[in-house]
Design goal:
It is built from nine helices and eight strands. It is of the alpha+beta class. Helix 1 runs antiparallel to helix 6.
């Protein structure tokens, strides 16, 4: 397998404090190089309409990883200063990986309230969803995930590229870039319980998990899911082990 030329698609953000840049920018550079060594070149995009279009153009991507409404410009306003996505290309130029993030501002609200109202999924939940029915919680969340909050998710890896450790690396890449861009108070995602229980809870690396959610997506499918989250400070603390993690993850093939 030809190895793409390593490059670093994440620009330097001079406005960030030096202590944050010095901790996260080298991690992004190392992760990008490691992923390139495993046959995938990363490209950073600010145009979220291009992510929607990629899903429409690629039948495998559309079937294997339907685009979540919270990352779809047909359902949410996703300007480039508040959202991004990362594309992985193989040596033939095929899209073999996607990952994305967006920023929420909740100074007087929180994840639980916004989730119950479906505002994390749709700008107009009354038109596109069923507030109070499409997402139900068995119990309240133990903490308020509020303030500046980044959703990081939508990870898809082509079947040809699975088994290379990318599923462990990319969540850290997405969170690190989201933190450099926005300095959120919290970062979160929602993941199907069956996947978390099968081992992805440890792979994704979120220290907190809230179970007991049932979600019905816009395709009419219902899932038992969990919210997973971490604070910005927990992300920075985790970064010390990131390089060590990259050195330890080895592809199975």
């Amino acid at each position: 397998m030809a190895i793409p030329t390593p490059h670093h698609p994440f620009p330097v953000l001079a406005a960030q404090p030096a202590a944050i840049r010095e901790r996260l920018e080298p991690l992004l550079a190392r992760a990008t190089t490691t992923i390139a060594e495993r046959g995938v070149r990363l490209v950073l995009h600010g145009d979220m309409a291009a992510l929607r279009d990629r899903h429409r153009e690629d039948p495998l991507l559309a079937a294997d990883r339907p685009l979540p409404s919270q990352l779809d410009v047909d359902h949410c306003d996703l300007p480039s200063d508040r959202a991004f996505w990362i594309e992985g290309l193989d040596p033939d130029g095929r899209t073999v990986l996607t990952h994305a993030a967006r920023l929420f501002e909740w100074p007087a609200s929180d994840l639980e309230a916004e989730g119950r109202a479906l505002r994390i999924f749709y700008d107009r939940p009354g038109e596109a969803g069923r507030p109070g029915r499409d997402l139900t919680l068995e119990r309240p969340m133990p903490v308020r995930v509020s303030g500046r909050v980044a959703y990081v998710g939508g990870l898809w890896i082509h079947p040809d590229c699975r088994g290379r450790g990318l599923g462990r690396i990319m969540p850290r890449v997405g969170r690190a870039w989201a933190y450099l861009r926005w300095t959120p108070d919290f970062l979160f995602s929602h993941v199907v319980d069956a996947l978390l229980d099968a081992g992805l809870e440890a792979v994704y690396g979120y220290p907190h998990r809230h179970r007991g959610l049932r979600f019905r997506n816009r395709y009419g499918r219902s899932y038992e899911v969990s919210w997973v989250w971490m604070s910005g400070q927990e992300l920075l603390a985790d970064s010390a082990a990131f390089i060590e993690l990259l050195q330890s993850v080895r592809p199975r093939r």
